[in-house]
Specification:
- The protein is α/β, with parallel strands linked by helices and 352 residues long.
- It folds into 2 domains: 194 residues, Isopropylmalate Dehydrogenase; 136 residues, Isopropylmalate Dehydrogenase, CATH 3.40.718.10.
- The protein has 13 helices and 14 strands.
- A 10-stranded mixed beta sheet has the order 2-1-3-12-11-4-5-10-8-9, with helices on both faces. A two-stranded antiparallel ribbon has the order 6-7. A two-stranded parallel sheet has the order 13-14.
- α12 crosses α13.
- Bound molecules: 3-isopropylmalic acid (IPM) and magnesium ion (MG).
């Protein structure tokens, strides 16, 4: 029986309770399909700061490096958010993890569910056919460029730096996945202003020659923000840099009606990381109110990445069936409202 070792970093706030539902569903998949998943827990984020003083302890990083995949809950705590002088922040743990593990490609799929179009902030007709994959570069750009203060602290700067190598590898992910989807790639940038964007465009044009079946478009990020609201169905794969991707993926994530539905994967090197898009929602922690679906669908992306595609499909089907039956957590205003734990049970019960 194949064994998979999963580094489980459940993190802060609602992280642990949504991860528990993911584990429940994965164990059920294991039973049905004959796999054994081993979950090794390690602290990250505010929880790790409380326990060890740092947001990503070395032991956590080492565990991640020797595992087959990383299953990640959420990080963040308000006591750090409003303190600009805080030297140690939970988010640093996530950024270091991405960098150290070479997780340069962040995939965030956004698709509407027919049963839930009434939850979307957009009119139902605008949500028809929406199926977007945001491919965000995750280990470069403004997040990791030279930053600091000068002039005695009164001037601050963050630099957006990209090398050809970094751009090529993320575009390869984008072109490859576009070829397997509807064959449309939109590069989102700010090439009318930024030199780094002009390099992205140059390289994208060069690479497009190798992908004759992919239709390529360029769009400035300000226009893209608007188009995502006006006509989201026009997009298939969006490829963009780290900062633009952060912003646009949050914007697109609400189209589906609830942040609680959207999974993500971060890949690049051998070990991938799989996590819900939503944050740690500290106010909801421990109350059995959080929607576990984003985490459960992240587990499905994890299985795909491990080559277990029919197992991943089994999870997606179980989620679809459960939503279609009218059950859900409070964020979905369902006809039958249940808690986090029960929703996890119901989804696990439909695996097979
Ligand atoms: C995300 C988050 C992170 C980011 C934060 C928590 C550092 O917003 O994964 O999108 O900005 O990348
Ligand atoms: Mg973000």
């Amino acid at each position: 029986m194949p064994n998979y070792n999963i580094a489980t970093l459940d993190g802060d706030g609602i992280g642990p309770e949504v991860i528990n539902q993911g584990i429940k569903v994965l164990n059920q998949v294991g039973l049905k399909f004959g796999h054994k998943f081993r979950f090794d827990f390690a602290p990250v984020g505010a929880t790790a700061i409380d326990q060890t003083g740092v947001p990503l302890p070395d032991e956590t990083l080492e565990l991640c490096k020797r595992s087959d995949a990383i299953f990640f809950g959420a990080i963040g705590h308000p006591r750090f958010d409003n303190d600009p002088t805080a030297k140690v922040r939970p988010e640093q743990g996530l950024l270091r993890l991405r960098k150290e593990l070479g997780l340069y490609a962040n995939l965030r799929p956004v698709a509407g569910y027919d049963e839930l179009t009434h939850l979307s902030p957009l009119r139902p007709e605008r949500m028809k056919g929406v199926d977007i994959l945001v491919v965000r570069e995750l280990t470069g750009g403004t997040y990791f460029g030279d930053k600091g203060r000068r002039d005695g602290g009164d001037t601050a700067y963050d630099t957006c730096v990209y090398s050809r190598h970094e751009i090529e590898r993320i575009l390869k992910v984008g072109f490859d996945v576009a070829g397997k989807r509807r064959g449309k790639l939109t590069l989102v940038d700010k090439a009318n202003v930024m030199e780094s964007s002009r390099l992205w465009r140059e390289i994208t044009r060069e690479m497009a020659a190798n992908y004759p079946d992919v239709e390529l478009n360029f769009m400035f990020v300000d226009n893209a923000a608007m188009q995502l609201i006006l006509n989201p169905a026009q997009f298939d794969v969006i490829v963009t840099d780290n900062l633009f991707g952060d912003i646009l993926s949050d914007a697109s994530s609400v189209l589906a009606g609830s942040l609680g539905l959207l999974p993500s994967s971060s890949v690049g090197s051998k070990v991938g990381m799989f996590e819900p898009i939503h944050g740690s929602w500290p106010e909801g922690a421990g109350q059995d109110r959080a929607n576990p679906i984003a985490t459960i669908l992240s587990a499905a992306m994890m299985l795909d990445h491990l080559g277990l595609v029919k197992e991943g499909d089994a999870i997606r089907n179980a989620v679809n069936e459960t939503l279609a039956s009218g059950v859900g957590t409070e964020d979905l205003s369902p006809s039958q409202q249940v808690g986090t734990n029960e929703l996890g049970d119901l989804i696990a019960g439909r695996i097979g």
